[in-house]
Amino acid sequence: MTSQTKSTDLTNPTEMLSGAAMVIRALADEGVEYLYGYPGGAVLHIYDALFQQNKVKHVLVRHEQAATHMADAYARASGKAGVVLVTSGPGATNAVTGIATAYMDSIPMVVLTGQVMSHLIGGDAFQETDMLGISRPICKHNMSVRRPEDIPYLIKKAFHIAQTGRPGPVVLDIPKDMTMPNQAYAYHYPKDISLRSYQPKQQGHAGQIKKAVSALLTAKKPILYAGGGVIMGGASTELTELAQLLNLPVTNTLMGLGAYPAGDKQFIGMLGMHGSYEANQTMHHADVIIAVGARFDDRVTNNTKKFCPDATIIHIDIDPASISKTVNAHIPIVGLVQPVLRDMLAILKQKKKKLDSAALAQWWQQIEQWRTVHGGRYDTTAPLLKPQYVIEQVSKITNGEAYVCSDVGQHQMFAAQYYPFNKPNRWINSGGLGTMGFGLPAAMGVKLNYPDADVVCVTGEGSIQMNIQELSTCKQYGLGVKIINLNNGYLGMVKQWQDMNYESRYASSYMDSLPDFVKLAEAYGHVGIRVTTPEELQPALERAFALKDQLVFLDIHIDPKEHVYPMQVPGGAMNDMFLSKTERT
Amino acid sequence: MRHIISVLLENESGALARLVGLFAQRGYNIDSLNVAPTDDPTLSRLTLVTHGNDQVIEQISKQLHKLIEVVKVSDISEAAHIERELMLVKVKASASQREEVKRCADIFRGQIIDVTPVTYTIQLVGTSDKLDAFIQALGATPILEVVRSGASGIARGEKTLTL
Ligand SMILES: Cc1ncc(C[n+]2csc(CCOP(=O)(O)OP(=O)(O)O)c2C)c(N)n1
Ligand SMILES: [Mg+2]
Q1: Testing the interface with A: which of B7, B55, B62, B73 to mutate, by most A Cβ within 10 A?
Q2: The complex's ipTM?
Q3: Measured between alpha carbons, how far is A499 from A356 in angstroms, rounded to an integer?
Q4: pLDDT tier at A12, thresholds 50, 70, 90
Q5: In the record's cofactor note, how is the cofactor described as bound (chain A) (predicted)?
Q6: Same domain, B92 and B71
Q7: What's the Cα-to-Cα distance from A400 to each of A78, A388, A415, A455, A479, rounded to whole Å?
Q8: CATH of the domain at B60
Q9: What is the pTM for the complete model shown?
């Protein structure tokens, strides 16, 4: 085993390593600091190689799903691929939800799955599952190792595919006999890789960009609609510059929160199913929509037949398949959002042209009026704690600077609506798949990599129990996450739909016998605080955030009857909304 | 509308499964699929016959492009092209029917490639339409077995789908 620690010279072509050692060494050469995983028979050689070096550190989760979410959240916060290592069979299948979660949100991730020995594949061997078959529809690409000497190339290829173009998870299946410790092969980690069948576009088409600029300049009622592509494409600065240069109103999708600073006056809120009244109205009435790194998801458009009838649509996206998929784009631009926005800015600055200022002023006047209609109001007179108020207070105590990792449900929407994200990569949630159980492992992945930052997990009593076992991992690695459990005693989002569509028949949306979360947190070695009245909230938050390195579980009992509003009326246009339990547009 | 899509694919294990899986996952139709390696053994050439409206066909082509192993995609039915399919048909051909079957095969420029006292096996090459027509033309002749390759296609003229 001296061979793997002896030489650090990457160009030394004579370095001989076992397949297992090559796996770890390739990750180190790729600059990977943390590997999230769980051992088992098929990956024991790899774990042994991991043990014998100190460059790549391993985080032992309590369930493989959590490993995938940790890696995924690291990627969302940093822009770099997270890496997962799990064993074959059940280890691999436990990772499936996390792979699908990353895939739906276009998050770069490399997942190494163990596999039974090559000669046993296809024979229903112990812990054999066809992971390539299972993961095929839920990952960007998958591959298997056929020869140990290919390991460095395949790992490079996995990172290359995961991180370029439209990012996504890549699965590499590694049969156990590819990692035998007693056989050594020449190790060389490729610096770059080029695939003839995969050449994602970088720059946008110059003619299309010119056309888009011209169309934008004729707008009287423009809107800039920015999605997760701006976050993963690192183009917040350019987006902000474009919006401010032309005084455009900006809306962000659930995935795009933080792409444009929420505190700025040109920000009109999130759009879509639970978007702000003003964002949905502005979209609906716009004459030019410039969509950047957004995909006209059904949770945004509502009924596409009634979608924005007057709008000319400019659509910038790295993925041609996202263009004109649900809504026809009049001016499509395929390319990375950052260079495309830069090109647009260059043309605009050179032309020195602005939009018709009188028309724009009138448009803004209309938008300001829309702002006053709902304005994120909620009942502040009720004696029970309101979830919206809790999120506002969390945002205050963290100066709006925290990484907020959310689970899925009403609490997720409250966090998206009431925590103002001023920076990209700070709002971390499962938007596409809507995976309950995502929040805690996601917060762990962020806290581990950003130990000095405030990392909050906003969750519900339903979601948190889907990966509650990770409280143990938090203890082992000293992850001082602050858990904001918006405890309403119900699967609140399900209950809301039952209230609205099923005459409040709460079929299996109430959970009896919830644990005492404070005691539970304590049992895992953490601090638990229960909050049941508005007066208790402030001191509890202060105490929690003062305990810098400690995980604090705030079990906050909120009004179980609260609903998320606005809410688009199913089958309607963008601007058909319920505004409260009694009002609709 | 019927479309003939040609794909140049890396000849790697799993690549074909991924392509076929895409059609199943996204609910696209496959009317026929024909695949074999090209003169370059690292590449496979596929001809896929599908149908759908323009928007569906555009999505199919874009989604195919997204697959990592897909090198090139072309909807060859958008321009002048040649389409050929191979069919092997085994029919019952006892004394009274033998002449009639042979005449029919001749008209369609088919060849009888296997003979027993009671059967003929006919080989026929042409567009898929022509093969359909031949089956119609066999009329009352009892068909024992039909094997079709699915269409293969190529663009007319100098246009090629190569690396
Ligand atoms: C794994 C998974 N199962 C089921 C669902 C469907 N679902 C969406 S929201 C929700 C309720 C979430 O309850 P809770 O975590 O308590 O949050 P609340 O809505 O009460 O804030 C459910 C069951 C889901 N999104 N994910
Ligand atoms: Mg709940």
Answers
A1: B62
A2: 0.94
A3: 46
A4: low
A5: Binds 1 Mg(2+) ion per subunit.
A6: no
A7: 18, 15, 12, 11, 20
A8: 3.30.70.260
A9: 0.96
